């Protein structure tokens, strides 16, 4: 017997009280956010004096008193705390007090308003915040941390509303911890709350921001929208980036910005601008111009020392102790003394400032690198390193030997010197133009400077694709495979429609290469058999061979032979062992239905093919034999003798030498071709900073460690 069908349970509406608590939780996260609501309520009421009293970080008591003339709705707070309001207008003879607006009042008290004593204005008292939401209460930090957040909110509102007097203190404390007078200016409020230094070093250009003389450990970014304190993480990061080249590492600025007309987040905490990029660029550009104009001088704290020749010329002064010892010189005599000193020093050459050892930077590329510090067991590897294409098919242009040290220097110079420029092709396709703009838009300025001015130190681990570079006094660990993949994608986009060709002689059959890759894959999840997958990929590529030739210099004959591959970087030959995998991936991984997506996915797959990944040796993963090209049974392809085998000998020793030769050729190609080319043409995006470019050492920091030892 079949079981009776189970009907779905009806959806039950939550209680009104629970709905209100959930809604309040979206607005009130902690005592500081509750205070923000109360401050905006008081400011909207036209208050000129606001006093705040806090107990236990605002959890036990948060009271605000103002002299305004109105109350906004306080529903959010009243659902998660015990709320009482005492208010009085000028025309009333007494104040009115109300307890428990939207939650039950305390035992023995009525929720109806009742007469009370009070001054003109409003006193809002919040007690037992989050008493009915224990989960939210347990997630808060210590009372001291919550009180610090309250002071931070008060400070920011005091600067934005400099005409209003603010005061904040702990319950039971005799003196307030924050107080500002009424009718102040914004610079005066900044000076009072952040100190004299920041006020002297602040410039105004649509915003108030500090110059290079002010340095703080943490960025103080104050953003007010429609007189509401909000956050804009993207704008904050952009503003911080303006100061990266001005302030020393670890120093941060002060920025105060106010504007109007945005779509505000429901919590009124985080905002998103319409045309946010344009607005942010305009603000940052204005700040950069102002900072550049004011960068003619900087202020440093120094200690004045009396030079020996001044003390001998000046009149002797009576002996005094400590700091009271001085030199008595009349004004006229002092002016004459300065003139004489200028005449004496005019003929002297200008002295160079001393550069300490921990700030010296190696700038010569001829200095020793990491590889030169290790002896090479077999010197022939420097002369007879094999090509990185161990397949049976010859590639043109090909390199069957790694260059000698002299050739290496020449190749490095020509690659980085500018005689072999990679020009950007002229393309009128809107999709390609949009992709090029996206690359430029994602450019990270500081990372670009690192790659443009880096010094290659050495390859740390070839299997893990890790290399070391130096920029200034810092060392960086680079995942050269990830960086190269982005670099080759940009090269393909740069040369779109005008790429050089890497010819294959004899041309291998496309179908057989795809079969090799498909046979090595697990296709149990596919509804197609392996022969069906091969035919589908083969038909897809053969049908689009004209487009592949026109845009990517990827030539496939009518008979299905691969004639040539796109050559993205001169003198750089990709690992042709990965060619079957490339052809297989071009079928399912490329979006052939849309122009832009097709170009982008194809170039990504091509870049992955060019990426210098870990070498796969024959003893680890033997590759199946590739049949000869189409032709007679007696036609055999030309085979490149990459190993120079000798008659007899130990096979294991030969295999070891072959492995070392491959690794040497790969390292040479990465150091002398790839990194010099990236120095010129790479446009690094910020995403590389996540895990692919990591600072591992700083010379000044190392000196500090040595000084402590």
TrEMBL record:
<dbReference type="InterPro" id="IPR038973">
    <property type="entry name" value="MutL/Mlh/Pms-like"/>
</dbReference>
<dbReference type="GO" id="GO:0005524">
    <property type="term" value="F:ATP binding"/>
</dbReference>
<feature type="compositionally biased region" description="Polar residues">
    <location>
        <begin position="378"/>
        <end position="419"/>
    </location>
</feature>
<feature type="region of interest" description="Disordered">
    <location>
        <begin position="619"/>
        <end position="663"/>
    </location>
</feature>
<feature type="region of interest" description="Disordered">
    <location>
        <begin position="371"/>
        <end position="422"/>
    </location>
</feature>
<feature type="region of interest" description="Disordered">
    <location>
        <begin position="315"/>
        <end position="355"/>
    </location>
</feature>
<feature type="compositionally biased region" description="Acidic residues">
    <location>
        <begin position="329"/>
        <end position="345"/>
    </location>
</feature>
<dbReference type="Pfam" id="PF01119">
    <property type="entry name" value="DNA_mis_repair"/>
</dbReference>
<dbReference type="InterPro" id="IPR032189">
    <property type="entry name" value="Mlh1_C"/>
</dbReference>
<dbReference type="Pfam" id="PF13589">
    <property type="entry name" value="HATPase_c_3"/>
</dbReference>
<dbReference type="InterPro" id="IPR036890">
    <property type="entry name" value="HATPase_C_sf"/>
</dbReference>
<feature type="compositionally biased region" description="Basic and acidic residues">
    <location>
        <begin position="641"/>
        <end position="663"/>
    </location>
</feature>
<comment type="similarity">
    <text>Belongs to the DNA mismatch repair MutL/HexB family.</text>
</comment>
<dbReference type="InterPro" id="IPR013507">
    <property type="entry name" value="DNA_mismatch_S5_2-like"/>
</dbReference>
<dbReference type="GO" id="GO:0140664">
    <property type="term" value="F:ATP-dependent DNA damage sensor activity"/>
</dbReference>
<dbReference type="Pfam" id="PF16413">
    <property type="entry name" value="Mlh1_C"/>
</dbReference>
<dbReference type="InterPro" id="IPR014721">
    <property type="entry name" value="Ribsml_uS5_D2-typ_fold_subgr"/>
</dbReference>
<dbReference type="InterPro" id="IPR002099">
    <property type="entry name" value="MutL/Mlh/PMS"/>
</dbReference>
<dbReference type="GO" id="GO:0032389">
    <property type="term" value="C:MutLalpha complex"/>
</dbReference>
<protein>
    <recommendedName>
        <fullName>DNA mismatch repair protein S5 domain-containing protein</fullName>
    </recommendedName>
</protein>
<feature type="domain" description="DNA mismatch repair protein S5">
    <location>
        <begin position="190"/>
        <end position="292"/>
    </location>
</feature>
<dbReference type="GO" id="GO:0016887">
    <property type="term" value="F:ATP hydrolysis activity"/>
</dbReference>
<keyword id="KW-0539">Nucleus</keyword>
<dbReference type="GO" id="GO:0030983">
    <property type="term" value="F:mismatched DNA binding"/>
</dbReference>
<dbReference type="GO" id="GO:0061982">
    <property type="term" value="P:meiosis I cell cycle process"/>
</dbReference>
<keyword id="KW-0227">DNA damage</keyword>
<keyword id="KW-0234">DNA repair</keyword>
<dbReference type="GO" id="GO:0006298">
    <property type="term" value="P:mismatch repair"/>
</dbReference>
<dbReference type="InterPro" id="IPR020568">
    <property type="entry name" value="Ribosomal_Su5_D2-typ_SF"/>
</dbReference>
């Amino acid at each position: 017997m079949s079981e009776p069908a189970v009907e779905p349970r009806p959806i039950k509406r939550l209680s009104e009280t629970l709905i209100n608590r959930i809604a309040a939780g979206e607005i009130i996260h902690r005592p500081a956010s509750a205070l923000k609501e109360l401050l905006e309520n008081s400011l909207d009421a036209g208050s000129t004096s606001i006093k705040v009293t806090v107990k236990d970080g605002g959890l036990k008591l948060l009271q605000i008193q103002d002299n305004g003339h109105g109350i906004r709705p306080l529903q959010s707070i009243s659902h998660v705390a015990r709320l009482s309001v005492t208010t009085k207008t000028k025309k009333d003879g007494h104040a009115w007090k109300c307890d428990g607006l939207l939650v039950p009042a305390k035992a023995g008290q009525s929720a109806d308003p009742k007469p009370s004593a009070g001054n003109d204005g409003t006193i809002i008292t919040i007690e037992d915040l989050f008493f009915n939401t224990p989960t939210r209460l347990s997630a808060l930090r210590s009372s001291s941390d919550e009180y610090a957040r309250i002071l931070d909110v008060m400070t920011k509102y005091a600067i934005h509303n400099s005409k209003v007097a603010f005061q904040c203190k702990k319950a039971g404390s005799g003196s307030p911890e924050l107080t500002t007078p009424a009718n102040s200016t914004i610079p005066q409020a900044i000076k009072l709350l952040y100190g004299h230094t920041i006020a002297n070093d602040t410039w105004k250009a649509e915003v108030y921001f500090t110059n290079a003389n002010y340095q703080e450990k943490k960025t103080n970014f104050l953003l007010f929208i429609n007189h509401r304190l909000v956050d804009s993480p993207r704008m904050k990061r952009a503003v911080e980036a303006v100061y990266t080249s001005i302030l020393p590492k670890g120093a941060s600025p002060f920025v105060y910005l106010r504007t109007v007309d945005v779509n505000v987040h429901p919590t009124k905490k985080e905002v998103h601008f319409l045309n946010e990029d344009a607005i942010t660029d305009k603000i940052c550009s204005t700040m950069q111009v102002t900072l550049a104009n004011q960068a003619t001088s900087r202020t440093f704290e120094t200690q004045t020392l009396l030079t020996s020749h001044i003390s001998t010329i000046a009149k002797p002064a009576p002996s005094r102790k400590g700091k009271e010892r001085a030199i008595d010189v009349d004004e006229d005599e002092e002016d004459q003394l300065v003139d004489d000193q200028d005449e004496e020093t005019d003929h002297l050459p200008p002295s160079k400032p001393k550069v300490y050892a921990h700030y010296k930077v190696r700038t010569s590329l001829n200095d020793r690198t990491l590889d030169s510090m290790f002896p090479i067991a077999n010197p022939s590897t420097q002369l007879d390193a094999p090509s990185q294409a161990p397949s049976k098919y010859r590639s043109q242009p090909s390199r069957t030997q790694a260059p000698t040290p002299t050739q290496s220097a020449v190749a490095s110079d020509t690659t980085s010197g500018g005689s072999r420029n990679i020009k950007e092709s002229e393309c009128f396709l809107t999709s390609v133009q949009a992709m090029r703009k996206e690359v430029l838009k994602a450019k990270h300025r500081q990372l670009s400077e690192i790659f443009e001015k880096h010094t290659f130190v050495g390859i740390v681990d070839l299997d893990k694709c890790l290399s070391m570079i130096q920029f200034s006094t810092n060392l960086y660990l680079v995942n050269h495979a990830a960086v190269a993949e982005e670099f080759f994608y940009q090269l393909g986009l740069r040369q779109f429609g005008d790429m050089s060709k890497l010819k294959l002689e004899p041309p291998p059959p496309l179908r057989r290469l795809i079969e090799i890759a498909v046979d090595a894959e697990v296709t149990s999840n596919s509804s197609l058999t392996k022969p069906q997958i091969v035919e589908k990929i083969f038909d897809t590529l053969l049908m689009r061979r004209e487009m592949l030739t026109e845009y990517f210099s990827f030539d496939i004959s009518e008979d299905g032979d691969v004639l040539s591959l796109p050559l993205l970087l001169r003198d750089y030959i990709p690992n042709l062992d990965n060619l079957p995998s490339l052809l297989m991936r071009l079928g399912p991984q490329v979006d052939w239905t849309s122009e832009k997506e097709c170009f982008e996915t194809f170039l990504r797959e091509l870049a992955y093919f060019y990426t210098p990944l870990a070498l796969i040796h024959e003893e680890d993963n033997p590759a199946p034999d590739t049949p000869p090209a189409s032709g007679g049974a007696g036609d055999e392809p030309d085979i490149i003798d990459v190993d120079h085998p000798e008659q007899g000998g130990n096979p294991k020793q030969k295999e070891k030498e072959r492995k070392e030769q491959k690794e040497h050729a790969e390292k040479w190609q990465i150091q002398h071709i790839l990194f010099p080319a990236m120095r010129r043409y790479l446009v690094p995006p910020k995403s590389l900073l996540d895990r692919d470019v990591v600072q591992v050492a700083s010379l000044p920091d190392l000196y500090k460690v040595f000084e402590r030892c």
